[in-house]
Amino acid sequence: MPTASHKLAARKAYQTLAWAAFRCATGINGLALVIICIFLFRNGLSAITWSFLTEAPRESMTAGGIFPCIVGTVLLSVGSMLVAFPLGVAAAIYLNEYARPGRTLRFIRLGINNLAGVPSVVFGLFGLAFFVIFFGFGVSLLSGILTLAILVLPVIIGTSEEALRSVPNTYREASLGLGATKWQTIRLVVLPAAVPGMLTGAILGLSRAAGETAAIMFTASVFYTPDLPTSIFSPVMALPYHVYVLATAGTNIEKTRPLQYGTALVLIALVLGMNMAAIWLRARLQKQR
Amino acid sequence: MKKLALITAVLVLALALPAMAETEIKIDGSTTVLPIMQKMVEAYMKENPAIKMTVSGGGSGNGIKAILDGTTDLAMSSRKMEEKELDMAKEKGAPAMPMAIAIDALVPIVNPANPVANLTIEQLRGIYTGKITNWKEVGGEDKQIVVISRDTSSGTYEAWSELVLNKEKVFPGALLQASSGAVKEVVSKNKFAIAYDGYGYVDKSVKAVSVNGIAGNPDTASNGTYPVSRNLFVITRGAPQGELAKFVDYIMNPAKGQKIVGENGAMPVKK
Amino acid sequence: MRFDRKAKDNLAKYFFLCTALFSILALALITIYLFMEGLPIFKVTSVTDFVFGQYWYPTNEANPEFGISTLIVASLAVTILSSCLAIPLGVMTAIYLSEIATHNMRQIVKPVVELLASLPSVVIGFFGMVVVAPFLQDVMDVPVGLNLFNASLMLAFMSVPTICSVSEDAIYSVPRELKEASLALGATHWETIRKVIVPASLSGISTAVILGMSRAIGETMVVLMVAGGAAMFPNSIFSPVRPMPASIAAEMAEAPFRSNHYRALFATGIVLFLFTLVFNIIAQHISEKHKQTGAATL
What is the ipTM of this complex? Predict the structure, then answer.
């Protein structure tokens, strides 16, 4: 039947065409990432020197380095993880180990999902009204840490739950069968098995907090403070906010340009580095299983 | 259990750390004064390493607000304090003390590729209220004018609106930018844009336009011939004391702070 | 001894319940504080004037105006245009990943999409400002490079990963039997995707699209840096606009505490928050209602 085989050939041709379109779409994403990275590397690499990484900005941001910003970003992201990680893991334990399907669970899920969808600038507004003004913490490391902690909480809960879910039920049954209570089972059997997966989540949370700008611009970061913070009530400089400041508030565009690229490069190196570590860790975990 | 211990430790640290804080001067306010202030802070901290200073550029309104609330030690402002604000400060028991530290020219800027070199105040007003929309109406190419302005809450906008617009509103099609640097960045990248910035921000990347035939610079601003100039202020809560007083003295010192003012494109008030 | 263990067990349970409730508490606090700081603006202006007013002059002394309709329209325009770019890209990438890619290709492409998701928004905004804007002005000859199109393009790349990963989960959960039945009847792989797999995972894909839009409407730094900032209705895709998050971020720092301007910005925050809340609730509703539990539920 020549017509049928013709038709089949046409159908196959459509498929080839469709495949090409799908590959193209996927390629565009990859291309976007590659273009941004190459662009920052080419322009920013020359700015990165030892003194750039270890000195404070000088001469109205046209010289010097970004050391206070690096320190600020590390403190903000690590601090927010210290708060959010225990909370998120504990919440994930409840959701995965204790909760029974029902109204409470749906209510909690609704809360978490909606918290995850709140825009970061709204977190910033909340942090300003609640931590900075109501609690009187001022524009400070502490206000920023607490605001970021709430922002990354859904990420931590999500990844921790996934880690707990991947612990085989036979582990739990064996432990319970030996007479351990639920809490003992969780503490001694389930948690140790889930820790590596949770670490992946912690790294993702860390990188999310490190790259966040809108949530800290009213709560923690300032334009210029060359000294390192002495207490958690000190305001700090932070890398993402510094990128914004350099891009929009420079007095001398030509001189700040290399610093802008350099700062942006350090920021994405930090964030992409952490993400790659998380992806690698997860891939290793999947292989072990 | 470890987690609980960790949380307690963090909390204890949180309570213990502020006790270790040292003398700190917080400065907040106008982004126009910001570059000058940053240089001063750099120089001052070199002389007095024990003092910790932070500078934020939240804008004039924010600086004044912070002085009223007592959340900052020194405010920078590119506009005069309003009566309302002065009264509010008195009510709160700490009269605000504004001090002019420099005279600044507000300069219209265009892209270096733009042939227009002079505009009258009336033409500027027409452009900013949306009545003049094409460069050919003011002697340029036949292209749409891209109007850039500062946010309507900024001190720079307020000075511009008072001196150029006669308090008329800027038309909604203007691109509002959040800082003086952002304004310049846009103009340097856009051939048909016009904006205004403090003289300290003007450099090779943009072209300054003279107003009514007079070029805006520190000299014409201080002798009063340039129509669009204003004072830049710092504001304290009551008379400055202790370390803050020393820093204010430094700012007003002709050989130190005022010299820095001059080096950064504004006119010192004391010589 | 036995009792002690049991008590401890219960204690642990309630402790964990409390931590799980913390997210709800946070969400409640956010809502309360937004409304507490924002609602008093309606003593100065009416809700209709606020939502439908065309002029945004919050600091004019003689005659302040607090109309955010131009900001709302700008936010919607940016979201819709970016979705037009991001939905095809995201869904097609998801189909590629789940149906076409070889195992090895998947190992490369998936991390790439995840890394794209992790790029800080301020870096994307920076890229839009220094690369895309001059390109639009010089090559496309548009008057302002910082505009609706530029912002939408940048936002699209931020919502692609969300759309892609949620759609991929949906496509992945389509029962094998359906796919095999279609192939066995002689359909090509492409026909199977088009006529069986995509329709079967449509509810999941819609969830993905809505979540992607929710991400785009709330994104701040990109629109702050590249949308242009003119508070007027766009008349082309190359018009500069001022979406809600940009207005909040740009002006909050200069708004005196509890002034009308400050309240108006919080009220804008409320509107933005409600938009994302509605998007998220719709997404959850769709995914709950059409939960795929097996071939029988289709």
Answer: 0.90
